Amino acid sequence: MVPAYARVLLGKKPYSAPSGTVIEPVELEARTVKLSAAHLQRYRDVCAVPASARGLPPAYLHVLAMPLHMQLFVVKNFPVKVLGLIHLRNTIRVLAPVDERAPLRLRVHFDTMRETDYGQEYDFTTSYEQNGALVWEEISTMFARGTSGPKEGSKRPVIERSNHPETGTHTDTLEVADNTGWRYARVSGDFNPIHLTARTAQMFGFKQAVAHGMWSMGRCLASAAPHIPNMKIQIDTQFKLPVYIPSQALARTWAVEGGADISMCTMKGDRLHLAMQVRTL
Question: How many CB atoms lie within 10 A of CB 27?
Fold first, then answer.
């Protein structure tokens, strides 16, 4: 991870790919990934996963793939500087229970860049197999701001959310402590400076350090654990406003047919940090 971070920080890649860039596919593989009970417990602690929640937390395998993601970001074929990218959307499919004692096979794949009215979107696919069967899959969409503004009337794609009562089925107050960025970084290996201190976040245009989007997702899934089906599920998440460190936020869960809707919003409830849908497959 350390050499990869050095190459990211010192690399000469642009923040947005030049017009006409041709994307060359990249696939990386780790043939044997073994789970660590101690590492899993650290993740459960930092995301406050309840002891009653069975199996692996749904977003945990994203954390294990971080070293391979970093290797992908620094290959020559990857066109932009990763520190300029914003995590826009995420889809996770939990396809089968994972045997924590058996090794996994991990693949990370990149082959997609989309030009949008706002900038460029990049998709990364992460997948795990166990005993030859696909057990977990993720598509992360990252965003690079364009050099010009959006076209008139253009809108970002959004997760459709039905009208819910303000109270929700379950509501939690989430404490985003001073050390949240550092704790999650030590578990995930993602030491992006915007998540660590106010001073390093200000270098990238943020007034304070901001919580990692995947921590926010993991924390909201932990809050909603009693309402999430314990079977094959798909989790669609759209990241909205940053969550500043330190702060408080509300996690709201609504039980719906086939799953749950989840949101993370400000304490006043007037602005959204993320919107999530969990559905059985």
Answer: 11
